[in-house]
């Protein structure tokens, strides 16, 4: 199966509306059922799990990079090579807790909350989350740590950021590792040439427009 650029545009737009509408209906019905089941009940108070502040995973720190306050967890000897972890969507630094414990003997492990996630600052507006800006966050973050090199370990959406970082700032890398991720170019090629992959990646189309975001906001 192959598509021209125009066909891809048309199909992507149609599927985005269809998928977003279906998911919006599911969210609405689930929310309605939840509200009906909990009428008169006091809403439970959210208490962050104690494991989030467990010092065996490292020290929680903040730093201003690319004009955004970023939160990260650091563990290991600062004089050792930097192992920088980038999480996926919708995750945060905690994704890497096991890797931090495993590798902090040989590396200075740093697990970053990218902008908009976890305890990092959450700028308003879609334009604040463009890929080039996220890449610049990583570059400036490394510099603000006083480093010139790192091994970049990434997962999912973090892998997209990492692959773009590799293309634009290879001089900062001693190595790059990507889990469950792919470059944007490879993904676009695969999703439009492989029907099975297209259906497996249907949820990606939910991010083309703000239909779900607008629905949730209302």
From TrEMBL:
Organism name: Papilio machaon (Old World swallowtail butterfly)
Domain of life: Eukaryota
The keyword Lipid metabolism is annotated on this UniProt entry: no
Family: Belongs to the AB hydrolase superfamily. Epoxide hydrolase family.
Keywords: Hydrolase, Membrane, Transmembrane, Transmembrane helix
GO molecular function: epoxide hydrolase activity
InterPro entries, sorted: AB_hydrolase_1, AB_hydrolase_fold, Epox_hydrolase-like
Domain AB hydrolase-1 residue range list: 81-198
Protein name per its UniProtKB record: Epoxide hydrolase 3
Keyword GTP-binding carried by entry: no
Residue intervals passing through the bilayer: 12-34
